[in-house]
Amino acid sequence: MTTPAPSGEGPALRLRGVDVSYSTQLTRVPVLSGVDLAVSRGEFVILAGPSGSGKSTLLRVLALVSRPAAGSVHVLGRDVTRAGNAELRRLRSRQVTLVYQNPGDNLFDYLSVAENLRARAQLAGREDPGPALLERMGLGGTGSWPTQALSGGQQQRLALACAVGAGADVVLADEPTSQLDHRSAELVVETLTQLHGLGVTLVVASHDPRLLELGPRVVRIRDGHLHSGAAKEGTT
After folding, report:
1. CA angle at residue 87 from 81 to 91, to 5 degrees?
2. Cβ-proximal residues to 78 (8 Å cutoff; 6+ apart), any chain
3. How many CB atoms lie within 10 A of CB 56?
4. Domain of 96: which CATH number?
5. Where is the ABC transporter domain (predicted)?
6. Nearest alpha carbon to residue 1 among 32, 40, 44, 42
7. Residue 233 domain-assigned?
8. Host domain of residue 160
9. I want to staple 2 with a disulfide (CB 3.0 to 4.6 A). Which of 36, 104, 113, 118 is the partner?
C-alpha cells in the first residue's frame, strides 16, 4: 500500500517496493513486504504498530543502517539504493541520524556531555555548537558531566542535540520514550517538538500516546505492511 505524503517541497525520504527478510534454518521470514513510503522535508511522522510489526527494521532501512533485499531507497532526493558503504557512512554522519531506544547506545560513554556534542559535530565537518545548544535543549550546565551522570531522558535529549549539532536534516528515533519515567519522557517529547519547529524531518517509532497524539501524521504498520498514513485534518 502506498502511503501518501502531504504536498510540499519533495520527499526527504522515499521507499518504493521495499522488502526485508531474514533466514532461519528452515525458511525465509518476511519482515517488510512491498513497503512504499514518502516523507516530506520538515515533516513529523509517527510510526505505530505492535511489537514485531517491522517498525525498527523500517527505521533502520530509512537510516541507511540496513539494506533492503528489494526495492529502492531515496534520501533527500538521491537514490542511495546501491550506494557504497563510504557514501552511506557520510550520509549517516552528516544528514541522517538514528536515535536508538536505549539512551546509552546513542552516546560515547567515555566522553563528557560537551565532548559528545563536539565529536558528533566534527564527524560531520561542522564547528562545535558549544554550550548554547545544550542550553537550548534544556541541558545547560551539564557540559563537563560524564554521560552516565545524566538521566535517561537527558541522555536522549543529548542524542537529539548531537543530531542538531551535526546538522542532520533527518532524525529517526526508535521508541525514544519507552525506557523513561513519565517526566523524562515528557521532556523528550518537548525536545522532538522543538526539533520539528527547527525544520528537521522526524520519523519516530512509538507506542507513546503523547507522541501518537502529537504527530501530525501517523503511519501504521502491521506484519511488515503499511496500512495508513494520511496527515491529520488541519495539519500540514
Report:
1. 90
2. none
3. 19
4. 3.40.50.300
5. 15-236
6. 32
7. no
8. 2-228
9. 36
Q: Is 225 helix (H, G, I), strand (E, B) or coil?
A: strand
Count of the separate structural domains present in the chain: 1
Q: Where are the beta strands (DSSP E) in the chain?
A: 2-3, 11-23, 28-40, 44-48, 70-75, 78-79, 96-99, 170-174, 201-205, 217-222, 225-228
Q: Which of these, 73, 76, 80, 97, lies nearest to 10 by C-alpha position?
A: 76
Taking the CA atoms of the chain, what radius of gyration do you get in angstroms?
17
At residue 95, the 3 state secondary structure works out as coil
The residues, ordered by sequence, that sit 6+ positions from 226 with a Cβ below 8 Å of its Cβ are 1, 3, 35, 36, 37, 219, 220
In a domain, 52, yes or no: yes
* Residue 63 and residue 172 in contact, taking contact as beta carbons nearer than 8 Å: yes
CA 79, chain centre distance (Å): 19
Could you tell me which residues come within 8 angstroms of residue 203 by beta carbon, excluding any fewer than 6 positions away?
13, 39, 45, 47, 59, 62, 170, 171, 172, 173
